[in-house]
Write the structure tokens for this entry.
Amino acid sequence: MNRGIRVGLTATHGMAQEVSQNPPPGVQYSLLTPLPSSGLIRSPIKCYMRRYDEKEQDLIEVVISPVKTKSRWILSCENFQAVTAFSLLGCPVPRFMRVAYIKRLLLKENCRKVIFWSKAGRNTLHSYAHLAADDRLLSKVTVVYPAIRKVPDDLIRFNDRDVSLLFSGDFFRKGGVNVIDAFERARRIYPSLTLTLCCDEKIDFNTPNMALRAEYLNKVNSTEGVIMRSRVPRDEIIQEILPRTDIYLLPTYAESFGISVLEAMAFGIPVIATNYFAIPEMLEHDVSGLLIDTSRFNTGRLFRGYVVDDIPRDFREYLTDHLFTYLCRLIESPALRQRLGMAGLQVARTKFSFESRNERMREIYCEALQ
């Protein structure tokens, strides 16, 4: 082991890129290229079930997508539903068959660990009673929080005027409707308020409801103060956009983790989000952020498969009203923005630091190689 532990990362997620640049002591990371696929198994997840035969690596760390390999490997994922998201030649496969196939794969001896990014992610196993009761699988399962790079102190700033808002990602699924509606109301009171949208018109405005899509594309393009940036490379977001942001908005309806919340917290930016899935593991309401409680609504049933077709009126008004109220609180109080932002910054630098993640991951790598 004097040469260090060689870990290959499947480059299927931005998280792999971030991890590769911040290895634990004694660990050498490299980004892997998958072998050609037969195309039999298909998935919306990039590189899903691709083949890796890596003789140069001691271990493969697979990010989100399970793989076919004879090498030792560990799986790092957001939730179990994502791991089972595949079809055969584009034809749907019954859930029990997909789950049985993945379970068989994870129970093989060369799969050494199954890492979830949150407790909420690990708890998705309880949606499958036979998985939650299988000690062979549970013995491989653990939780390791993702890490976010430390932002230099000179990039942390708190502005006391001309507040700038930021929203990014899948417009309808992440609550863009409520962001635009709340922004319109807020701008009537605070005319210097601006909102940057990092959303691509072709990629991020996904909905089967064409009338809803047309309505909000028109609002985005005609509302004063809205700046449409399309999709921006991650480095540009970190280097240019986040340093100029005062409040980050994520009133999401469905989320597998919420890494963008961590990115904002790393800059000391106060966040307004829903208390969906793993977000409460990052933010504590009125301590390190502001959380809109959506527990009275069954969002999993309202938006099955993360598809936003119809937004019920009571849900829409409830979310927009709370977002507007919290937004006004933050706009009117630079002190509150700084208090929440600094608390979030401390969480990012401790609970979600690379020091914390790397210490745990090195233990996992050593255990996997025994």
Summary: The chain is about 40% helix and 15% strand.
